Amino acid sequence: MKPCVLILVMAVLSCWPVHAQEFRPVTCEGTYPHHLQGVCTDETTSIFWSFTTTLVKTDLDGKLLKKVPVANHHGDLCFHDGKLFVAVNLGKFNDPKGNADSWVYVYDAATLKERTRHEVPQVFHGAGGIGVRNGHFFVVGGLPDGVEENYVYEHDGEFKFLKKHVLKSGHTHLGIQTATFANDRWWFGCYGEPKILLVTDADFQVKGRYEYDCSLGIAGLPNGRFLSATGRCDKDKGCTGSVRIAVPDEKAGLRLMAPDLEKNQNGGRRGK
Question: Which of 43, 67, 185, 197 has the smallest number of Cβ neighbours within 10 A?
Fold first, then answer.
């Protein structure tokens, strides 16, 4: 190869983009005392897992990078601007009298060091999940039996309360557990038998109610796909968590991609 050609090839290669590792089905390394509550990503190199009393950071292979003990009960979480925002309830869930103690705890995503806390008392039945859109934070949570609608509590970037949104969703068991905004839609994971996925537009108008289980975690990915979490608990070994890849489906809401077409179920259950 002539020297000028070699130099040109080397110059091209030096400018060639290094593609980020793609998200794929993985299991979080380790076992934990309590079960999985939610997952989120930084959309590039890390997955974050909330195991009720342990906050965990892994790489895209599920390899443990860092874990820290946290207060019981840390729920679902979201990533924004280099930080993790976790829905936390220190009181009762699903109490008709509102004896919750609802907060959002904020952590540095690089170190998992706690940065600050924001009280969100408007989340009347207990903060259990959180999503972010356009710099605003949307907190969801518990629901007493017999209530035929769900609630989403909107806050600005400083956690000033802005509005309570009402979802005409029908009753879902213990409210909404997980939340993410992706593909111009809100996606909410709920308990129940069967477990339920609620999909709304950006203004919280319900577009679908599906029998799909993302009650332990749902996170949108940059390519329009999703991480859909599952988990199991063994009384002798502890609790584990995994994520699989899902895509939107007109009939099912979300559909697991091959080779993740096994029955969508989990063995862990949130203690609310």
Answer: 43
| Amino acid 152: pLDDT | 98
CA atoms within 13 A on the CB side of 97: 3
Q: Are 112 and 103 in contact (CB under 8 A)?
A: no
Quote the CA–CA distance of 74 and 214 in Å, as a whole number: 17
* Of 33, 30, 62, the residue nearest 227 (C-alpha): 62
Name the residue ranges covered by the structural domains of the chain.
Answer: 35-256
Q: Which residues contact 19 (CB under 8 A, 6 or more apart)?
A: none
Q: Give the tens place of pLDDT for each residue, 31-49.
A: 999 999 999 999 999 999 9
Q: How many CB atoms lie within 10 A of CB 4?
A: 8
Taking Cα atoms as reference points, which of 34, 243, 37 lies closest to residue 129? 37
Is the model's pLDDT at 9 over the cut of 70? no
Topology of domain 35-256 in CATH is Methylamine Dehydrogenase; Chain H (2.130.10)
Phi, psi for 14 (deg, rounded to 5): -70, -25
Q: Which residue has the tokens 């020297």?
A: 3
Among residues 77, 87, 91, which one has the least CA distance to residue 118? 87
Residues ≥6 apart with Cβ < 8 Å to 46 = 57, 58, 59, 60, 65, 109
